[in-house]
Amino acid sequence: MRDTGRDRAGLLWVLPALGFYACFVLYPLTQTARYSLYDWNGIGEATWVGLRNYLTVLTDPTLRDSVVHALVLILFFTVIPVSISLLAVATMGRLRTGAFVSAARTVLFLPQIIPLVGAAIIWTWMYSDQGAVNQVLRAVGLSALARPWLADFGTALAAVGLIGSWVSTGFCFVLLMVGAGKIDPALYEAARLDGANAAQEFRHITLPALRNEIGVAATITTIAALSSFDIVYVSTGGGPGFSTMVPGVQIIRLAFTTGEVGLSSALAIVLLALVLAVVLPMQVSNRKARP
Amino acid sequence: MATSPNIPRRTALGALLALPAASALSACGAPGSGPATTAPRPIGTELPGEPTTLTMRANADQAPLWEALGSAFEHAHPQITVELVTEDFAALQQNGPRYLASQDAPDLLRFPSPGDAVADGLLLPLQPYAEAYGWEDFPETQLNQWRIAADGYTRGEGDLYGLGIGFALVGLYTNTTALDELGLPLPASLEAMAEAMAAATEAGLTALVASQAGLSNILQNLMQATAAEQVSDWVLGKPGATIEGPETEAAAATLLDWRDRGYLAPDVLAVDDAAALSAFTGGQGLFYVQGSWMAAAVDQTATDIDVSFTVVPGTGPDSAPTATSAPNSFVIPANAEHPDVAAAFLNWASTDPEARDLLVATAGLLPGGPVEPEPTLASEGALADAAAAFTAVSAADRFVDFLANASAGMLTGTLQPQIDLLIDGQSDPATFLSRLQEDVERERA
């Protein structure tokens, strides 16, 4: 009987959060799934179309390409930041704490506290024809490379992606730094006594110890890449042409600009499935690898 | 209880999780609702005697104009208070249908393009007001963008559902200082314009200054030279209208030819409106195709060059003056509380001499409606030229709505990306036009 009472009390405590979750996540999710089966402008009468919206998402080249762009962004939002952070953590772990290390930490973390919209605006200026990036290139004699980075079909997606790298590196770095702080220094000492070099220490101590943190960082940044919206919307709006269009921007456009709520909902459901398809295997392998 | 202590928790949890599922099931019918059928109500052209508040929602970038008009209207009719709310234009465009559908809809809403609003029964028909106030006598091409047929979608004919306050037209700004140096007169035909551009390119000028966003205006003017009716019918969604055809394809090919001859800046896709304006007013270019909404800014910043504004020439000197133009359209929601006051405001803003002067003085816009009374204008400069051009096109009744207004998603979803692809050489004129056609058909379907 005492257990029941405690269960009830426990339930009471989670009830508010669960209520909000049901109200603002589960309910809208069911509604999105429902809308995705209709041709609806958001206000007037809706027409049942079954799975036709899903067929459009999978066959329309612009919508399909936007999904491909989101996958490319994983390289910039996840692979690059995690690699840089690992390198930084390994390097700083070998340095004595001091002014340099704390300055480096601050610099790496700074982008994380800037709102994404702000980051996108800053970078839009820096990438512009007369912006900082081109000024530097011209100053070092590489003016042949200078170009309007965000307006060039060949460079726009990578340029947008690098804004994402700049933002997520701070997050990945802090996460890995905390993880590295928990590694017993004695392990490094023992390795050094055995004659291990920096690369071996990294390979056999740091990397295995940070497996969980890497998993978390990779999961969160991958979700950010696949569902990216702010940076693309502000910096390019999906252009030039459709070269940086991503599902996040497309969903808003379809729902609120062109009034295709059904198609927009179908794309949102497909994006949800895509995120789960990419992230779940990462989670599972991360859990399996846990000692 | 003792045997299954967990039941209450499970039940409660289950109930909680079932809530959204159940509401989803119960709401499994089609979302949304059809238009409400309302009986036509009598209209009045007399303002109420008692204190009344007119609520108005408009775009923030023109807030000074709406404020000036609001206070002038209050001054003329002391019992009326104009309550103005402004917001970012893009947000206003996106939220428009939701404001119209809301229970406390404003009395007047700045609403750029009808979209589905008439079919959804969200707009008050203005036809009775148009007849009572005499708007029917305004030039027809100022009104046809807001005439909507009984099917709720086809524009260009039928009842009136919106009225513009202040017009702007796209035209050709010419750096006459540079043109004089080249020893050439103002071009009277597209051919003469091309010759002048060749000479300007030779002289090291950017022959045709444009921003990425402005490219569609150049293209539309090229199309209008030979296919104005086709373009207009297509934008208005007349049955069977198409943007594809030999004339429009030739127009797009001409734009590419101009690009190949170096008349456009090589990085034109990276040029924004502000950069284009400063390149032109700084004297780096010869021509600049842009809206008259920039005329006041051009007059202010072009201190070292003389500038004229004309309608973009047609195929020959005798071509009827034609211009792309759209009003600052306002609609009265079907749910509006004071539709009569809103209509009186619209009428006042188009016909009252003070309001007409305010449009020019505050926003550089040209009053539509009757040609008289003429607004007060500076004697020279781009803005004065624009007013003369507007009057000439009004007289010929040859305004064409923007390609961008063909559908709600046309500008951002189709026109701008497709022009990028066309100018970058990844698309060709025929493909470009078929994409425009496909997207409009999909959106209207």
From TrEMBL, chain A:
GO cellular component: plasma membrane
Transmembrane segments: 12-30, 67-90, 102-126, 156-178, 214-234, 254-280
Keywords: Cell membrane, Membrane, Transmembrane, Transmembrane helix, Transport
Domain ABC transmembrane type-1: 67-282
PROSITE patterns membership: ABC_TM1 (PS50928), PROKAR_LIPOPROTEIN (PS51257)
InterPro entries listed in its UniProt record: ABC_transporter_permease (IPR051393), MetI-like (IPR000515), MetI-like_sf (IPR035906)
Membrane topology: Multi-pass membrane protein
Any GO BP annotation: transmembrane transport
Key word Transport present: yes
Localization (cell): Cell membrane
Family named by the database record: Belongs to the binding-protein-dependent transport system permease family.
Xref: PANTHER family: ABC TRANSPORTER PERMEASE PROTEIN (PTHR30193), INNER MEMBRANE ABC TRANSPORTER PERMEASE PROTEIN YCJO (PTHR30193:SF37)
Protein name: Carbohydrate ABC transporter membrane protein 1, CUT1 family
Taxonomy of the source species: Bacteria, Bacillati, Actinomycetota, Actinomycetes, Glycomycetales
UniProtKB/TrEMBL annotation, chain B:
Keyword line: Signal, Transport
Signal sequence range: 1-26
Gene3D superfamilies: Periplasmic binding protein-like II
One Pfam family named in its UniProt record: SBP_bac_1
PANTHER family in UniProt: ARABINOSE-BINDING PROTEIN-RELATED (PTHR43649), OSMOPROTECTIVE COMPOUNDS-BINDING PROTEIN GGTB (PTHR43649:SF29)
Recorded family membership: Belongs to the bacterial solute-binding protein 1 family.
Record protein name field: Carbohydrate ABC transporter substrate-binding protein, CUT1 family
Source species taxonomy: Bacteria, Bacillati, Actinomycetota, Actinomycetes, Glycomycetales
